[in-house]
Specification:
The complex is a heterotrimer. By secondary structure, chain B is an all-alpha fold. In chain B, about 75% of the residues lie in helices and about 0% in strands. Chain C is mainly alpha-helical. Classes of the chains: A mainly alpha, B mainly alpha, C mainly alpha. The interface between A and B is large, with 43 and 40 residues.
Chain lengths: ~100, ~500, ~625
């Protein structure tokens, strides 16, 4: 394992941890979306790295682009939900969304 | 293969697209009138196509067929393929979509148009999941399914649809992160993400350079798909999503979507990809048994009809995964059959909950009571569905549960088999409670003038109950057929 | 006449190729049915049918007695369970005895039951009992014996039900105690058959008492003595005395059951098994006899009702018979059997006199009646005869049979002899008390009964009494007559007729009698009443508590069994409640609690769901580290 690999893996780990930590700790729907995005970036980094290790750089590029498209779609839907929630409840606080319990 | 067969196979992917186009290209007023019919046609055609392909494959003596949508099949090209399990699943999808559209007639009002669009995209996504042969395409269709279902849940804006949709979305996003992470690690080991290649690369995973990465890959993929399927303890979103979706969406969601997105993928992983990784099966079995027991226990004190059904789904998904994780052919067949049975009886139950909601306006079981005289069809189909869930002979659920428990027994997991059997008591308990609170007992005030729902809802209830009973009675024939195939 | 009987005998025992031994069984049954079929108000017809049945039975018995040999066999199953009847000298004699007593008591009961209800049922059960008893005596196969034995139990139950339909407590008690004895008999039969390899009695002979034979012997013996009324199967007899009509007491506990029980006991100890004098089994049997003598006589001493006193006395006399047979000496066997015949005679007579008292005064409680001697002279004479005989006063029959039993007991062990002598003392004391209180002493009648009504009883009732009393005297003076029938049973060449040889024993017996008289006079002086003459024994320091307990029925085996069963039922109820609690309370609460706690996992916040997911991930990673 050379330095580059270690650096990439560390970066990925950092991103993931940041993303997931923020995901758990935030109360703001928008921030949740951002956190998911951050975590996804870590994933794309890992995929690119994996492709580089394998030599299948073209395939991994295709993967990464597709992933970016998919996560954009998901982010848009999530944003739409946040807007609907804002219209209904007045803010984007996720603690308001706890009527469905038990 | 013959051109006819190619054409039929292409309809799996092409028909939903066609329906979406039709829906949007026609004028708004016409579209409003016929959109639900489009959906029903799509579902029925899909069922017919599945049966047709099955018959053709049997006749030709093949067990699977590959095809592709837009390009020629060559080596290394991405392809679609059908085998018997996919065909069973496609049939289930068609059945549930039809039931969903039949229910949508009375419950959705002016959202029919949006609903049809979304449902067709959902159908596309699910068909894709059933047909692909590599993990990345699986991910793509998984996302398509997920996005469509988020939006469909949020159609219930007046209720808590937004809340349910958002929770589902967040958990799904986390699942995606995990799945892709796992895929990345697996990709590092094998050069491509096709099922066959990955399985080959994992055949000697213990001697790989960094087995830790591979293990991380397994774990992440397993966890990701577990979140998607609603296995305990990753199930948090499931009851909320089922409860808050509109009635027709609940039917489809509970009937097939969760199973496709999560369970089918896990089954493929167990059967095709991680065949040489016994630890995968062991962990899956543990998760499965926890789901079975705790899902059933948690359902006992619930107060909302759909929430009980949601926890019941968690429990039954546990059964399917239990069968798959045994690692034997019997277990896998039991899991597949339970997949089919669950599609039938859970859909029936959700259709009944839709009927109750239409008739009385609420799904809180404490506010309901004595609906048996007023809604006899709903009551009887509910009883049949619940008996099938609990595993009472001679209904269908009994046979698949039996196969699963036999498989667990045969592979040496006697305690787990016993526990799964014992959980049937809890299953019966919560369903009896549901049945007693909603249908039996004295009629509650304010509900005296409820009538039976007619039309599509009634029809789908009856049809699905008939399938449950018929399949149960015909099971021995099926068993003989499978034995003839050499599968048992 | 003799030729006629001889011909009939030949006819019955197979001379013409057709065996009619079964007639002994079938005839009474048929006539029983007929007796009940005749309408109720035709008293004369019914009674005539009844008497004719008993007379016919007697004639058949005489014929069989003369024939001395005969058998009948019908094959039933492969396991040697056949319908087999046999008559040999012993069973012939027993049949004759049964027949004679049946006729005598039948004559008595026709007069006794003249105006009572349910007399038809009584006739029916009476004849059925006779049929069953004949069958049991004639049986040559253990299973057939068992069948008729059980039949006796059924008819006993029926007879007791006549007395009190509403609260059949006595009948149930008799059924339970007899039932236990019969169960033991069944067990014994099974063990014996297994030991011998056959159910046919002719194949079971002189088995050694070891291994399975011990079980067989003990159980069969218990069954036999239980039927006869020895302890601990005795406690229903005094209760029955109150419940059932009096002729029933005269015939069943006093006569039939004794005869059958001792008959079977003799068969068991000398034909089926080989009881050796001085062996463990012999001592066991003698012990049962001795205990019965002492305890039952002690109870008899303190009774205040004529019938109950007679019942306890009956129980105690069985003890003599068992003691005699248990010695396994020829003297003992002959003595026991002679005592059997004598006892039946005088006990029957005593019960019949008590019946006369009851019929005329309406009560047999000695606290309310006394001094009937002047009013009912014939009854009193009969009573005196029987009482002297039972006490063992020469030259009545009881003296001779008791001497034989004393002789055998002394040879077997001093303790048995002492028990027998003590029994004699207590018997004499009880009958002194009874006679003094009921027949002598100042006249006293119950409320509402006038002196003029208390006359002597009708002739039909006097006749059997008289015959029996006369028999007590004749069998005593001319004791060669019965002994010549009994002696061959024990073997050839015994002759104990005439006066007993051992003068020491005679002297001791007479001394005991005088002691009893002295005791009675002492008591009489002390209390001034015949009835209370035994009170000084009753209220003696140590004996008083024992008597109190006995009167409160602490020693009643039936009550003890019932208490045990109640205790057992209470335990079962407790277990059932515990199981109910587990299912209804515990399981439900546990599952509901678990379910509610699980619901707390999903409290609506996404953060919590995510937390659970991450926990799951961590858990799976840990698992992987262990499993891989």
């Amino acid at each position: 394992m050379n330095v580059l690999s270690i650096a990439i893996l560390t970066a990925a780990l950092l991103l993931i941890v940041t993303g997931l930590y923020m995901l758990v700790r935030t109360y703001n729907m928008i921030r949740i979306i951002i956190a998911v995005e951050v975590a996804m970036k870590a994933i794309t980094l890992l995929l690119a790295y994996a492709g580089w290790l394998n030599g299948q750089t073209a395939l991994s590029q295709a993967f990464v682009v597709t992933i970016i498209v998919m996560e954009v779609v998901v982010a848009v839907v999530a944003a739409g939900l946040a807007i609907s929630s804002f219209r209904k409840n007045g803010d984007v606080d996720i603690r308001r969304l706890n009527k469905l319990n038990g | 293969m013959s051109a006819g067969m190619e054409f039929v196979l292409l309809t799996f992917m092409g028909l939903p697209l066609l329906m979406v186009l039709l829906n949007n290209l026609l004028k708004k007023e016409i579209a409003q009138k016929i959109c639900l019919s489009l959906g029903i046609i799509a579902g029925i055609v899909q069922m017919a196509a599945a049966v047709f392909v099955f018959a053709s494959l049997k006749a030709a003596g093949q067990t699977e067929a590959d095809f592709s949508q837009f390009w020629d099949l060559g080596v290394g090209a991405s392809r679609f393929s059908v085998d018997f399990f996919s065909l069973l699943v496609l049939f289930c999808i068609g059945m549930v979509i039809t039931a969903g559209f039949l229910t949508a007639g009375k419950t959705l009002g002016d959202k029919k148009f949006n609903f049809t669009n979304l449902a067709m995209i959902l159908l596309l996504g699910m068909n894709g999941i059933a047909l692909v042969t590599d993990l990345f395409s699986l991910y793509v269709f998984l996302e398509i399914t997920g996005v469509a279902s988020f939006v469909m849940i949020s159609l219930n804006k007046e209720g808590d649809g937004i809340e349910g949709a958002f929770k589902y979305l967040v958990m799904s996003a986390i699942a995606t992160v995990f799945i892709l992470g796992g895929l990345a690690f697996l990709f590092m080991q094998s050069g491509s993400l096709q099922y066959g290649d990955v399985a080959a690369a994992l055949s000697d995973w213990q001697y790989a350079e960094q087995p830790a990465l591979l293990i991380a890959g397994f774990v992440l993929v397993l966890v990701g798909f577990s979140i998607k399927s609603g296995v305990m303890p990753f199930h948090g979103w499931l009851p909320d999503a089922y409860q808050s979706a509109p009635a027709a969406v609940s039917v489809i969601l509970g009937g097939i979507v969760t199973k496709m997105a999560g369970v089918y993928a896990l089954l493929r992983l167990t059967a095709d990809i991680f065949v040489n990784v016994p630890v995968f099966n062991q962990i899956l079995m543990l998760l499965a048994i926890v789901s079975i027991v705790l899902g059933a226990v948690a359902a006992i004190t619930q107060t909302d009809f759909k929430r009980i059904l949601a926890y019941s789904s968690i429990s039954q998904i546990g059964y399917i995964l239990l069968g798959a994780s045994c690692g034997s052919a019997v277990g896998l067949i039991g899991a597949m059959l339970h997949f089919f049975n669950h599609a039938t009886f859970k859909t029936t139950l959700f259709v009944n909950s839709a009927a109750v909601e239409i008739a009385t306006g609420t799904t809180e079981i404490e506010k309901l009571g004595g609906l048996q005289e007023k809604m006899p069809v709903t009551g009887v189909s509910s009883i049949l569905a619940f008996l099938s869930t609990a595993g009472i002979p001679p209904l269908a659920g009994f046979w698949s549960k039996l196969l699963i428990i036999i498989a667990a027994w045969q592979t040496g997991n006697v305690f787990i088999a016993g526990l799964a059997l014992f959980a049937s008591i809890f299953t019966a308990a919560y369903f009896l409670r549901l049945q007693r609170c909603v249908f039996f007992g004295p009629a509650v005030e304010g509900l005296e003038d409820t009538k039976e729902v007619t039309g599509g809802v009634c029809l789908s209830s009856l049809a699905l109950s008939a399938i449950t009973v018929g399949f149960g009675l015909l099971f021995p024939a099926l068993l003989l057929f499978l034995q003839g195939q050499g599968l048992i | 006449m003799g030729a006629m009987f001889g011909n009939m005998a030949a006819f019955m025992t197979g001379g013409s190729g057709v065996n009619l031994l079964w007639l002994m069984v079938v005839l009474p049954v048929a006539l029983a049915v007929l007796a009940v079929a005749i309408p109720r108000h035709a008293f004369a017809a019914r009674s005539a049918c009844f008497l004719a049945a008993t007379l016919a039975d007697l004639l058949l018995a005489i014929a069989l007695f003369i024939a001395k040999e005969g058998s009948m066999l019908l094959r039933w199953t492969d396991f040697e369970i056949n319908l087999a009847f046999r008559v040999d000298p012993f069973s012939g004699a027993v049949l004759l005895a049964l027949g004679i007593f049946a006729v005598l008591v039948a004559i008595y009961s026709v007069a006794f039951l003249r105006r009572k209800e349910k007399y038809g049922q009584f006739y029916c059960y009476y004849l059925l009992t006779l049929a069953m008893a004949n069958g049991a005596v004639l049986a040559d196969n253990l299973v057939v014996l068992l069948f008729f034995w059980e039949g006796l139990m059924v008819t006993l139950f029926g007879m007791l039900l006549i007395g009190d339909r509403q609260k059949p407590a006595t009948a149930v008690k008799a059924l339970v105690l007899n039932g236990i004895a019969d169960l033991l008999l069944m067990l014994g039969v099974a063990a014996t058959a297994a030991h011998a390899g056959t159910f046919m009695m002719e194949g079971i002979s002189q088995l050694p008492i070891e291994g399975l034979g011990v079980l067989g012997f003990v159980c069969m013996m218990a069954g036999a003595v239980g039927k006869a009324g020895a302890m601990p199967f005795h406690s229903w007899i005094p209760d029955a005395a109150d419940a059932a009509p009096l002729p029933f007491m005269a015939i069943l506990p006093a006569a039939f059951e004794k005869i059958l029980g001792i008959y079977l006991l003799v068969r068991i100890t000398f034909q089926f098994y080989q009881m050796v004098p001085g062996s463990v089994m012999s001592i066991v049997v003698m012990a049962i006899g001795a205990i019965t003598i002492v305890l039952a006589n002690s109870m008899a001493l303190i009774q205040k009702d004529i019938k109950r006193l007679l019942s306890y006395s009956t129980i105690s006399q069985v003890g003599y018979m068992i003691l005699g047979i248990g010695t396994a000496l020829p003297v003992g066997i002959i003595g026991g059997l002679f005592h059997l015949i004598n006892h039946v005679m005088y006990k029957c007579c005593l019960f019949l006199t008590a019946g006369s008292v009851e019929k005329q005064t309406g009560s047999t409680d000695m606290r309310y009646i006394s001094g009937l001697g002047k009013l009912m002279p014939v009854t009193t004479v009969c009573f005196l005869t029987a009482a002297l005989s039972i006490s063992g006063v020469p030259p009545f029959s009881g003296f001779f049979s008791k001497e034989l039993v004393f002789d055998a007991a002394l040879e077997s062990g001093m303790i048995f002899y002492i028990a027998a002598v003590l029994g004699a003392f207590l018997t004499a004391a009880s009958f002194l008390k009874l006679g003094h209180a009921a027949y002598f002493g100042p006249l006293r009648l119950p409320e509402g009964v006038k002196t003029e009504d208390v006359k002597e009883v009708p002739g039909a009732m006097l006749l059997p009494m008289g015959i029996l009393a006369l028999g007590c005297l004749i069998f005593g003076v001319f004791n060669a007559l019965p002994l010549s029938v009994i002696q061959p049973i024990a073997g050839e060449g015994y002759d104990f007729s005439g006066w007993p040889d051992n003068w020491t024993l005679v002297a001791i017996s007479c001394a005991v009698l005088l002691l009893a008289v002295g005791n009675h006079l002492f008591g009489y002086r002390r209390t001034g009443e015949g009835l209370k003459a035994a009170d000084h024994i009753r209220y003696a320091p140590a004996l008083r508590t024992v008597y109190d307990c006995a009167e409160k029925r602490y020693f009643d085996p039936y009550d003890i069994i019932m208490q045990l069963i109640k205790g057992f039922a209470w335990i079962c109820y407790g277990i059932d409640r515990a199981i109910n609690w587990v299912y209804d309370v515990f399981a439900v609460d546990f599952v509901s609690g678990l379910s509610s706690r699980l619901r707390l996992m999903n409290n609506g916040s996404v953060g919590r769901y995510m937390a659970w997911s991450f926990l799951g991930v961590g858990f799976i990673v840990l698992l992987c580290l262990f499993l891989v």
